[in-house]
Amino acid sequence: MPSAAILHEAQALHKVSDRLDALAGEHPVVSEALVTISGNVRHTATLLEVIVATKLGPLTGSGPAMA
Q: What one-character DSSP code corresponds to residue 29?
């Protein structure tokens, strides 16, 4: 089902965002840039979830996408 695949990718993007945030804490020289990129990735993941919810409908029997 396309919605499951898209939600899977959104979850992967949330994890990438989390890793970028962690790297920002470890590398002060580039932390501002990493936090900005992390936020953009997180927003993209959220937009994918919104697209699924509004255009494809929720998955039957599933909880929140970011369980």
A: G
